[in-house]
Structures are given as C-alpha cells and as structure tokens.
Amino acid sequence: MKPTTTSFFFITLVLLFVIFISHAPSVNSQTDSCSSTPSINGISFDITNFQCSSVWDSHGFILRYKQTETQVWSFVLSAPDNNGYIAIGFSRQGIMVGSSAIVGWGGSNRGIKQYYLGGHYSNLVDPDQGNLVVFSDTSSVTTQSSRIYMAFQLNTTQPESKLLYAVGPQGRLPSSPDFRLVHHDSMVSTTINYLSGAQSKNSQPYSRLRRSHGVLNMLGWGVLMPIGVIVARYFKQFDPIWFYAHTSIQSGGFILGLAGVICGLVLKDRIKVNVPTHKSLGIVVLVLGGLQVTAFMARPDKASKVRKYWNCYHHGLGRVMIALAVANVFYGIHLGNAGNEWNAGFGVVLALLCIVAIVLEFRKWARK
Predict the structure, then answer these.
(1) How far is Cα of residue 108 from the mean position of the Cα atoms in its chain?
(2) How far apart are the first and last CA of the chain?
(3) Would 360 disulfide with which of 158, 234, 238, 306, CB 3.0-4.6 Å?
(4) How far apart are CA 186 and CA 84, in angstroms?
(5) Spatial contact of 285 and 325, defined as CB atoms under 8 Å apart
C-alpha cells in the first residue's frame, strides 16, 4: 500500500466518522394515537376530552392532560411497554438536575413514584421526594395492548411547561426496598404549550460546547492517535516519510485532544455537573499525552544503549493512553446522553481501524 493510498484511506475513515455523528436515526415505535381516546382500565379519573400531544415521536410517547379542577391537573403518559420504566419530569430550566419526576413501570411489581433528580447518579435520585404535590390515591400504572399507561394528578395552579421524558433500560425496574432508578437509556427535554398542545424540543444548555468537547476528543485521542500508531508500526519501509507522518498525526491528535479537554473543563464549570471519573480519566490521558511529547523531544540516538528501553516506554505508554482515551470517550457519550448513533459512529471507525491493523499485521508477518 503506497503512502498516498494510505493517507486517502485514513481520511476516508475520518469522513465516515463525521457522517455517522452528524446524522441521527429516528425510529418511531408509536402505536397509540391522539386521533382517538382509548378505553384504559385501571385509571380512576375520566380522560374524555383531554388534550393530547405526541411528545416524543422516536419513542412513541403520548401525553394526555387536562385541568380538571381549579388546582387539579390530570395527566396520562403512554409509551410502548419495553419492560423498562417511563418518566416525565417537571423542570424550571429544562434540565434534569433539580427537577422532580413521576416514574412508572409495569410487570408483576408495577408501581409509580415521585423522584427528586438531584444528580446524574442513582444515589442522587431520591424516591418519594420532590417538589410536586401528587394525589397518591389517583396515581396508577397499567399495561394494555403492549403499551404502558401512567396516570397521575397534581395539585397546582399551573404545571411547569418544560417537561423531560425518559425511558429506562429493559428489564431493570425499581424494586424494594430502596426503589432506586438505574440510569435512563434515553431522555429528551421539551417545552409544551398547555393551551394548544404544541411542544418543541429544548436544546441542551451549551450544546455547541458539548459537541465540540466530544468531537475534538474523539478525533484527537480516539481516531488520530491510533492512526499514528498504525503508521509507525507498519510503514517504516517508507523512511523517513513514515516518521514525519507519525509525528504530524500524533501532534495533531494531541492538539485536538488538548482542546477537547479544555472544552470539557469549561463545560463542567458552566453546567456545574459532577463527573469525577470522566474528569479524572481525561486528565490522566492528557498527562500521558504530555509525557509522550516530552519523550519524543528527549529520545536518545538510535545507537544509544538506552534506546530499546525508550522504545518500550514510548510504545507501552502510548497504547495505555489510547486504551484509556477510547474508554473515556464511550463513557462520555453515556454521560452526555448523546445516543446510540454516537456509539455506533465511533465504534464503526474503531472497528475499521482494527481491521486495517490486523490486515497489516498479517502482511508484516508474511514478509518476515
């Protein structure tokens, strides 16, 4: 494989990566409809003439609601029954932390509870806590026609218009004695007009900064760094082109990664989120990257006796850095609720790089 062909191939991989993260697939699993009022067993209040809105098309969420008395608002949230919990949160700012949510689940131990969303971790999400005044005697959960229906009533003159919806992982339902929630699979933030039923999706706070943080780290640590390793290991026959290509690619990866880490620190300060593991891993990766730069500047001559030890240090540290960086990128996707398309896009690029490395490794062995 010629150097020009190799460069074109790797550029193509990066472009594929960008395409994957730029296009989000949408799957509509909706089976309910606002065109009719279903007859639902187990709901203690009449839902005739309720306002109805399709609030989360990709997950089939339907919200029905009505102010049934002066200070009583009645809600029915329905979604496909995927053996996971469903949730609706009421938020002042359209963000999860600090909101109160009603969560329901089916199955043999079906239930409905209010939760206070104090943070992104299960131990910060408290059951039977929150700022909502709920009529507990009219709250219920029922399953019918492969859908789950969660009904509840709030004592309020006007509910918050910024609503959050979430769906939990399949088979991981809250249970006694603590009824803790596991992290949701997917979430969306919306704003609803209770009079007309119209709703719109809220953009995440600092969404551009979030995307910059993710993309810069993916491209820097997760794509360019592995490409630089491949060039150094399998293209030394093109001396000295391989060396300049390797140093250029790794330098570019380090610069992009450094920018991504800085974006992450700024983002953490602005949204006041506590992600100690993600932050610690990011700092470790940055330190290892800095050590690699230092090692390159202080590399001994090829004839030196310590050169073989420097090679072991340089190669080993680089691989550890890349492994931690890739793990932290996937963890960041999880923390940011970026969705499966980000995981798929990054995973496909990594898989292609692995295939290229395996093919080139076999060719290297064959030449020996």
Answers:
(1) 30
(2) 17
(3) 234
(4) 11
(5) yes
DSSP state letter for 179: -
Residue 165: both structure tokens together: 């919806």
3-state secondary structure of 214: helix
Within a 13 Å sphere around the CA of 98, how many CA atoms are in the beta-carbon half? 9
Q: What is the pLDDT of residue 26?
A: 40
Residue 253's SS3 state is helix
Token pair, residue 209, equals: 């900064």
Q: Are 162 and 202 in contact (CB under 8 A)?
A: yes
| Residues contacting 206, CB < 8 A, separation 6+ | 267, 270, 271
Interior CA angle at 136 toward 134 and 138, to 5°? 105
DSSP 181: P
**Is residue 112 predicted with pLDDT exceeding 80?**
yes
Most distant CA atoms of the chain, gap in Å: 88
List the strands of the sheet with 199-201, edge to edge.
125-127, 111-117, 99-105, 86-91, 162-167, 186-192, 199-201
